[in-house]
Write a structure and sequence with these properties.
The chain is of the alpha+beta class. It has helices at residues 24-30, 58-61, 66-72; strands at 3-7, 13-17, 50-53, 82-84, 97-100. The chain is built from three helices and five strands, in the order E-E-H-E-H-H-E-E. It starts with a strand and ends in a 6-residue tail after the last strand.
């Protein structure tokens, strides 16, 4: 199983095991990771699962779709590595993925 490291805005690290095929958002929710709100449940319609993909992982997680980019226009503190965690699908190749969480979702 791949492992994902979530790092809160204040530096607290949480390592969780993820299931390939699940989203990074559902992995966070299922493991009680604070900082992923996920109001829409993963429908890419609220942007409350905003995260920052660690720069070492941006290429491996792929690019945001047009719909995701439109939703990201509504987040606070958008950065070039901003993504919606509901749109990142866990794969074995993402073992060790590092996700940073914004302060705006606490």
């Amino acid at each position: 199983m791949p492992t994902i490291k979530f790092i809160s805005h204040d530096g607290v690290e949480t390592d969780v095991e993820a299931k390939a095929g699940d989203s990074v958002m559902s992995t966070a929710i299922d493991n009680g990771v604070s900082g992923i709100v996920a109001d829409c449940g993963g429908a890419c319609s609220c942007a409350t699962c905003h995260c920052y993909v660690d720069e070492d992982w941006t290429e491996k997680t792929g690019e945001a779709t047009d719909v995701e980019l439109q939703m990201l226009d509504f987040v606070l503190d958008q950065k070039p590595n901003s993504r919606l965690s509901c749109q990142i699908v866990v794969a074995d190749e993402l073992d060790g993925l590092v996700i940073h969480l914004p302060a705006s979702q606490i």
